[in-house]
Amino acid sequence: MPCFFISDLHLYDKRPDLIRAFIVLTDEIKKSPPSTLYILGDFYEAWIGDDYQPEWNKAIENALHSLIQSGHKVNFTHGNRDFLVKQMWSQRTGVHLLDELTLLEHNDLCLLLAHGDEFCIDDVEYQAFRSTARTEKWQESILAMPIEQRIAFAQKLRNDSKSMSADKDISIMDVNPSAIETAITDQNASILIHGHTHRPKLHQHPFGKRLVLGDWDEFVWIAKLDDNDSLTQSCAKVDVFCNEGMNALTVQHSCDFYSA
């Protein structure tokens, strides 16, 4: 079964073009044989709880539900912006929630899937917040707030994140090579696929392959693994993709698993 991989769409009301592009993607996938779409985190710019149902999100959830009803599967990995996505959202959309690290077996391949922020261990300040924010106690305290307070809190977190990122060395915010090596070798993975860093590239490490998914901003980025284990990542300008769909995509990265 073919698989599609996306991450870091950062969907919210200020980017209706990206919402439209995602809906176009689901419509395009529905034209193809049954497949699985993997959303590897930061699908939303900020998610403040499943009880928050703004008007702009209805089209997104409807598109996900329609895709699944048409015979495709959708799996979701939490990112650092949408870790409050819970079972209520899953039940509304039909999307399956994955663990932080997921192994996908496809023919003879073993693919390790993640959002990617867990590998940025040199950013000690962020990792401390991440550890706190992933606890049940912290999440319950946030979800107990009134929605308007949660909206303000999420905005403050985004502002604080931008401010702190501006003061950090760019290398600190990238993945740690040792953390990547440990993840790939411990799982005996053919490749690690992740997002988070917004640095799309296919890496050929001595210990294995790694595909970094692109973030959706000026461009739409989509990776696809076909039935023959051919893995590619393609992109297109958002406005062109909205008009032309998959025909607008240009391959940027291609992975051969079986070359000598």
Helices, strands, pairings?
Layout (H helix, E strand, L loop, with lengths): L2 E4 L9 H15 L5 E5 L14 H15 L3 E5 L9 H7 L2 E2 L4 E5 L2 E5 L10 H10 L2 H8 L3 H20 L10 H11 L3 E4 L6 E5 L2 E5 L6 E7 L5 E7 H7 L5 E6 L5
Parallel strand pairs: 1-2, 2-3, 3-4, 6-7, 7-9
Antiparallel strand pairs: 1-10, 5-6, 8-9, 10-11, 11-12
Helix pairs in contact: 1-2, 1-8
In short:
The chain has 260 residues and is an alpha/beta fold.
Characterization of the model:
The protein is of the alpha/beta class. It has one domain: Purple Acid Phosphatase, chain A, domain 2 (4-Layer Sandwich), CATH 3.60.21. It has 8 helices and 12 strands. The strands form 2 sheets. A 7-stranded mixed sheet has the order 4-3-2-1-10-11-12. Helix 1 links the parallel strand 1 and strand 2. The radius of gyration is 18 Å and the shape is globular.
The figure for the number of domains is 1
Sketch the topology as an H/E string, one letter per element.
Answer: EHEHEHEEEHHHHEEEEEHE
Relevant CATH superfamily: Metallo-dependent phosphatases
The CATH class: Alpha Beta
Radius of gyration: 18 Å
Shape: globular
How many strand units?
12
Strand order of the largest sheet: 4-3-2-1-10-11-12
Terminal-residue CA separation: 25 Å
Count of DSSP-assigned helices: 8
User: Beta-sheet strand percentage?
Assistant: 15-25%
**Could you give a short account of the major beta sheet?**
7 strands, mixed
By secondary-structure content and strand pairing, the structural class works out as alpha/beta
Low-confidence stretches: none
CATH topology: Purple Acid Phosphatase, chain A, domain 2
